[in-house]
Amino acid sequence: MPAGSVRTKSVRSRTARKSAAASDIGHDIDLGFLSDAVGFYLRTAHEAAFRAFLKRVGDSNTPPWRMAILVLIDANPGLTQVALARATRRDTSSLTPALDDLCQRGLVTRIRQVSDRRSYALKLTPLGKKAMRQLKASAEAHERELDRLVGREQRTQFIQTLKRLAAGLAVDE
Question: Domain tally for the chain?
Answer without folding.
Answer: 1
